Amino acid sequence: MNSNSAFGADLQPFMGIPSFMRLPVTRDLNGIDVAILGVPFDSGTSYRTGTRFGPRKIREASLMIWGHNSTLNVTPLKKLKVVDYGDVSVIPTSIEHTMDRIARTVSEILDMNVTVITLGGDHSIALPLLRAHANKFGPLSVVHIDAHIDTWEAEFEEVPFSHGTSFRHALKEGLIRGGEYIQIGIRGPVSGENDYADAKSLGARTITIHEALEKGIPGILKEVHERLKGPVYVTLDIDSADPAYAPGTGTPEVGGLSSYQLLQLVRGGHGLNLIGFDLVEVSPPFDHGDITAVLASNIAFEYLSLLAMK
Ligand code: MN
Ligand code: MN
Q: How far is the CA of 241 from the centre of ligand 1 (A)?
């Protein structure tokens, strides 16, 4: 044991600076496989804010992750060189400027052939993330796990971007491959009877929570694997989980997935051509006992484990 380490498994979870999984914090990407990136932004939320505190809290909750994934039987940090890249320098008063900064930062990382795991932040950050990834990989296959469709028309015409419009823009901008956009876990009251039909007409395959639970997670995964042929980007809104498992979020919807079902869903991505991931909408001010942050950090670890198995 090296008693002089500032980071790493030599430290006890309660020691040191709370980087993701006690990883080194650096922007030197030479020889690096995966970068953990925070986007502390919540000016795209329409109801309760607080997701600007998400990345920091998820990092803190990740300190208890010792490193071996006993379910998948893989130790990601033995296979991959991973760093904590820190946060995008967001501008809380400007969603448009922030989106530019996100896309620029992520493009710089992708240019180094490094895979990005992004911790949000509200779901508006998915649009610049998809732009940067599509710019690198071409149109993407997208798995969107969420309670909400997020394909709504903008509430405010002058500002067409919010956490509820990202996938409408992404589809219209051609960032997603035709027929390869799957929404999973969708539920709750919507603004009108045409919302789901609208998502469908834009090109979404919407799997409601009802369908997901009726078919079971393996049934859903079967369709995901059959449908997605391109580079797969996974975007996970923590409100896909039931508020009992994830109370710390801005727009909670009852009757959602359990922690285990979410882990099972992400794990089931093994074998897909995985090229990017974000986890959004963790709002620590509404959390209790870090329930939501602990779930979020473990889901991110699960995705990291899949990258190690590629
Ligand atoms: Mn949502
Ligand atoms: Mn969302």
A: 9
Measured distance CA(4)–CA(7) in Å, rounded: 9
Place of tokens 């490094």: 114
Reduced to 3 states (helix: H, G, I; strand: E, B; else coil), residue 1 is coil
Identify the three-state secondary structure at position 140: strand
Task: Dig out the tokens for 58 from the structure.
Answer: 């998820």
How far is the centre of ligand 2, averaged over its atoms, from the C-alpha of 303 (Å)?
18
Q: Domain map of the chain by residue range?
A: 5-309
pLDDT of residue 55: 98
Q: At residue 49, does pLDDT exceed 90?
A: yes
What are 95-119's pLDDT values in tens digits? 999 999 999 999 999 999 999 999 9
159 forms beta bridges with 156
Q: Tell the CATH topology of 5-309.
A: Arginase; Chain A (3.40.800)
What's the token pair of residue 150?
A: 């997020």
Mean pLDDT of the chain, nearest integer = 96
- What's the 48 CA to ligand 1 centre distance in angstroms? 12
Report how far ligand 1's centroid is from the alpha carbon of 108 (Å).
28
Percentage of residues in the chain with pLDDT exceeding 70? Answer: 99
Distance from residue 149's CA to the centre of ligand 1 (Å):
7
